[in-house]
Amino acid sequence: MPDYKNILSNRYPLAQSWTLAVAERAGAYGPARKALGTMTPEQIKNEVKAANVRGRGGAGFPAGMKWGFLNPKPGQDVYLVVNADEGEPGTFKDRTIMEKDPHRLVEGCIISMYAIGAHKTFIFVRCELVLAIQRLEAAVKEAHQKGYLGARPFGKDHPMDIVVHPGAGAYICGEETSLLNALEGQRGEPRLKPPFPAVKGAFGMPTIVNNVETISSVPDVVSMGGEAWSNLSLLPPEMKDGGTRLYGVSGHVVRPGVFEAPVGITLRELIYDFGGGMLHKDRPLKGVIPGGSSTPVLRPEDKVHAPDPKSPMNKWHGKSHLDVPMGVDTMRNLGTMLGTCCAIVMDSSVNMVEASRNLMKFYHHESCGQCTPCREGTGWLEDTLNKLASGRGKASDVDLLVDIANNMMGNTICALADGTAMPMLAFVRKYRKEFLEAAEKGLGPSHRLDEAVRAALVGGARVAAHAEAMGGAA
Amino acid sequence: MTTPAQSHAPLTLTPEQERRIDEILGRYPTRRAACLPTLHVCQEAVGWVSPAVVAYVSQRLGMAASEVQGVVTFYTMYHQAPVGKHVLWVCRTLSCDLRGGKTMQEHLEKRLGCHAGETTADGQWTLKKAECLAACGYAPMVQIDDRFYENLTPEKLDALMDRIERGEMPAQEETAWTPNQAS
Ligand SMILES: Cc1cc2nc3c(=O)[nH]c(=O)nc-3n(C[C@H](O)[C@H](O)[C@H](O)COP(=O)(O)O)c2cc1C
Ligand code: SF4
Ligand code: FES
After folding, report:
1. Average pLDDT over residues A4-21
2. pTM listed for this prediction
3. Touching check for B24 and chain A: CB below 8 Å?
4. Which of A6, A55, A171, A458 has the fewest Cβ atoms surrounding its Cβ within 10 A?
5. Superfamily in which the B86-181 domain is placed by CATH
């Protein structure tokens, strides 16, 4: 394992790390005491700005700037809403915080509520994460018993409460305005923006919606100071993409999992150093989806083309996409997105028609159906891919995929449609030959996505191989 | 579990369940906001969202029955028909499928003698396909009732299901965590 410091995850390995006693002995609630005891809300907001915290929920918006949009009218309540809907395929990082260190999130909520002038936080957790919900609810209860929540947290006359709100199974509820509708007891359909939640959010009140990991970073920002926390990042300071973060890696690697590293490690480090390399040495890397399924796939053989010395990417001119430090802006410059920073790794056994068909089925299932281009487009993409896979397709269907995707973009209420279309376009552009082959011959049983592991799974050998790999790498 | 015939009788909850709903109502500035959590409590009590549940929730929260129904149909975790004693969700999204999601589903269909979306003849199991359950690095995985079982093989899954059929509740394993070297 690489030797970066575990900061956000430093309490994860402790026995009973989710209890207040253990967490507090290891430093929890020190930052909250400091923030509420010695700092003004303005000072905290300035530290969060200086920290260059980019939202960890996928869009990478600067948290400090978002908090700055709040301007409540007299008499209006302000709410903090934590997005714990974690449903983007490939993404499984927020769960670790809620299960292993829920007090870090509770403490982040306490400091953030104080900073933005909120008295109530709703943590919206997808209901499937039962263990996470249990541990969060227990943590909130413990914090109340200690007086860290309630009438006078840390002696401050600023009453605070946290409500853990279960979702009910719908990916779209991760979209922040859909989440607010679900919180209010409605169907989880996204709202037209503007107004943005900071102006009119939960129950019509000014609301800040942030991801679990974003809010969980706030205690460290306060204890280290914003600038020091920002400088943990490996990216140059002018990129304003600071700190340390959780990375995930799944798919065809030896050691899938969640890891912590500074912002700005490369996909190569994530796959080979953290993930332990490709699962089968004879099956090389074919493509990697860098940050959840809505981010366009990258190929290892593609090189950065930025000969202009003034280009922000010039430093990496000629390098593989795998060797560019991962940041919100660097990934955008590669034509993809950093997203949730959880990579899906696919080896040479994977047929990209099948991979994209799996995802388009997902998006079709999860589209809320409000906008015609999205409702029809996701279904049409899935149908067309089904046709190609079953051998009923023709070459023009490959261009049809591109047309459908192009017509979905920029025409809808929320970003689900773009998050479907962009990856579809990248799959076709980068693996066009495979789509044309499918149009000609269809796909056979050997194109199953689990082809690489099936023999071992059915034969029972995978357990042993897996145990050896884990042991060998530890 | 309630049979469809019983489901038209008005819903009566235990005092403990009523107390839980009162407590939920106290959390929000509007009654309607209690809709999702209240439906969860009722589904836990009845086994599915029966017409009686919809009637109860609409009356308790002051919503039209059609509004409650609209909410129920939007979300996948509300069962709109009775289900088996155990509900087994097998994740079939990309990360899981790369590591054997389909193999797991096939194994389950063979073992249970039913397809995804169906309930076994003896009413013990309902098998459902799930979309990504935030366990992608621990694939393949299933959710059985309220627990995740991860890093599965067909053998491991069989052993778990055997235990569940004997009335045990195998605990969800603590998710593995590998700290970096410096720590
Ligand atoms: C379809 C869709 C699904 C999303 N799912 C999630 C999610 O599960 N968790 C999350 O934090 N953000 C998700 N987002 C992003 C949120 O809309 C929002 O940008 C985020 O919660 C803001 O928090 P941050 O600024 O701290 O990242 C999703 C967005 C879209 C369009
Ligand atoms: S883009 Fe799709 S998911 Fe988003 S609001 Fe429109 S139909 Fe619903
Ligand atoms: S793909 Fe199965 S848990 Fe994410």
Report:
1. 98
2. 0.96
3. no
4. A458
5. Glutaredoxin (3.40.30.10)
Other CB atoms within 10 A of residue A41 CB: 18
Region A81-89 average pLDDT = 98
Q: Give the pLDDT of residue B9.
A: 82
pLDDT, tens digit, for every residue of A432-453? 999 999 999 999 989 999 998 9
The pairing of strands A120-125 and B147-149 is: unpaired
The domain A20-230 belongs to what CATH superfamily? NADH-ubiquinone oxidoreductase 51kDa subunit (3.40.50.11540)
Distance from CA of A350 to the nearest CA of B (A): 8
Measured CA to CA in angstroms, residue A244 lies from A107, A108, A228, A393 at distances of 18, 15, 11, 46
Tokens of A144: 């109340």
Assess whether pLDDT exceeds 50 at residue A474: no
Q: How many Å lie between the centroid of ligand 3 and the Cα of residue B136?
A: 4
Residue with CA closest to ligand 1 atom 23: A210
- Residue A437: CB partners within 8 Å, gap ≥ 6? none
Q: Which of residues 151-180 of B touch A (CB under 8 A)?
A: 151, 153-156, 172, 174-180
Q: For residue A150, how far is its CA from the centre of ligand 1 (angstroms)?
A: 28
Q: Is the backbone peptide bond immediately before B51 cis, with ω within 30 degrees of 0? A: no
Rounded to the nearest angstrom, the minimum Cα separation between B97 and chain A is 6
Check: CATH 3.40.120.10 for A243-347? no
For the segment A340-354, the average pLDDT, to the nearest whole number, is 98
B29 has a pLDDT exceeding 80: yes
Q: Structure tokens of A253?
A: 């690697």
CATH number of A352-443: 1.20.1440.230
Which residue of chain B comes nearest to A127, CA vs CA? Answer: B77
Per-residue pLDDT, averaged over B156-172, amounts to 97
